[in-house]
Each structure stands twice: as C-alpha cells, then as structure tokens.
Write a structure and sequence with these properties.
164 residues, alpha+beta, Jelly Rolls, four-stranded antiparallel beta sheet, 5 helices, globular
Length: 164
C-alpha cells in the first residue's frame, strides 16, 4: 500500500512542479498550487485531434504534459508549436477573449485541463489565489505591450531609414 501512496505523492509533486513553471501560476503558494491541481483534469488527444478552434469561447486552460501541438490561424498556416509545459488559453480564460487560433495534436498528447468555471469558483472561495494570478496576468500583458512597442519603434526606424 505504501508504494501506491508514494507513487501518488510523487505524481502529485511532479504536477506541482509543472504548475510552478507556468507563468500565470508562478506566484502561488504550495497550498494554492495544490488547490489548483485539485480542480484540474487530465485530457488526452490522438494525433490530428483538435483541442480547440479559433473563435470558440476560452472555457479552459490547458497545460501540455506530453506530446506536441500545432497552433494554426484561419488559413491553416502553423504559427507556433507547443511543447511540454506549454499552455493554451490562459489569457483568454482571464480576459474573456475568444480563442485566437486552432490547436491540433501533432502526436498523441496528454494535458491538464482547468475549466474557467472551476478556476473562477476557486478564485471566489480563495481571493488571494485570484489576486496572485491577476498580478501575473497584468505583468505578462505589460511585457507583451513593451515588446510590441519595441517592435513598432524598430519598424518605424526601418521605414524612416528607407526614406533617406
């Protein structure tokens, strides 16, 4: 019996280490990470199976544990590949935006899924979890804005240099 219990504990510790690597959840305490893990569900996809489609409601956050996913936009062009520990949908769940791309399994894949309804219920019961997550979301979005501003400035400088 102890062996099975030890295996469960080791598996749980691995999952917590995975959650620790997700930027949106990075500031959560170990107890808060356990609570988040308690509302997550495992999901598997076969090669070619669609996880979510562009334009759908962002109703869950997915964390890729094993496998590989492709991110495709309207014209079916692959714009990104998601490898283990990569996340899908974390911003949409918190911002209410619809899915910005279609995600398809490139090979058999295993994921953790956290439904938006469940995370919102957890945040309602544990406001400090919500506060930690929202602070991280703000930091991530602010960083994206800074990165975009840098790219815009570089593009403007390039355009101005072409005029000379």
């Amino acid at each position: 019996m102890e062996s099975a219990d030890e295996d469960k504990k080791e598996q749980k510790n691995k999952m917590i280490k995975i959650i620790e690597r997700i930027p949106v959840f990075a500031d959560l305490s170990p107890v808060q990470k356990n609570k988040l893990l308690s509302i997550s569900m495992k999901k598997t996809l076969e090669e070619g199976e669609i996880l979510c489609k562009e334009g759908e409601n962002s109703d869950a956050i997915f964390i890729l544990l094993v496998g590989k996913l492709s991110v495709k936009i309207v014209n079916s062009a692959t714009v990104a590949t998601i490898n283990p520990i990569g996340t899908i949908g974390e911003m949409g769940v918190f911002t209410g935006e619809t899915r910005s791309a279609t995600v398809e399994a490139m090979e058999k894949s295993a994921l953790l899924a956290i439904r938006s309804e469940d995370i919102n219920n957890l945040i309602g019961k544990e406001p400090m979890i919500g506060l930690s997550i929202m602070r991280r979301v703000i930091k991530i979005l602010a960083k994206r804005i800074q990165d975009h501003n840098i790219r815009i400035r570089e593009f403007q400088n390039y355009i101005l240099s072409q005029d000379e």
